[in-house]
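Work Package 3 (structural annotation) set out to generate three-dimensional models for the target panel prioritized at the project kickoff. During this period the team completed the workflow that converts sequence records into discrete structure tokens, so that structures can be stored uniformly alongside our sequence database. As a representative example, we reproduce one entry of 225 residues exactly as it appears in the project archive.
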Amino acid sequence: MATRNASPARRRKPPAPAPATTVILVRHGQTPTTGKVLPGRAPGLHLAEAGRQQAERAAERLRELERIDAVYTSPLERARETAAPIARAMGLRPRIERGLLECDFGEWTGVELKTLMKRPEWATVQRAPSTFTFPGGESFSGMQHRIVSTLERLRAQHPGGTIVCVSHADPIKAAVAHALGTHLDLFQRIVISTCAISVLAFTAGGPAVLAVNSTGGSLKDLRPS
């Protein structure tokens, strides 16, 4: 006997895709050593006056968004001082997240960039970072795994929501490269300026990059296509 097709009313609808979660990455504002020294995780580095102004402008831009569910920040002072006005503008309290920390530069921490550029290892840092581990510190590959895993965990805690993560240039570049499907050896081609905003949307089909290194303009219309 032929099997009858199930009636439309009895056919199960496919499950709706999970709502996209938007992750807004903000680099900390300018410090007195920006572009001069590799500060790494050394404590005691605060925002310069220009950096405080940048953080306030970033807060104003983010205030335009309909909803932000949480603000997470690296524990370093320059990141927390950037996150403070952003969280205040949203009526939130910033949450410390160690996964957003700067790369551990080990013995290179605190060394002037002009000195580091003269070292033979500098070419590897720029051209083949996936093969490099900072002496006494972290590898670029380890840093990328850390930041990507952190963002995956945080976005899973806010399905369909929007969160802000205040971090540092190299971790943000590594996260953007991963979302783009770009090899880590090319991540140095991505520019992340102080207090620049980059936006990732995590959808059922994978991450989408909505903005990179945005330093002005409205963010209201950013959404996956």
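Residues 140-156 form the longest helix (17 residues).
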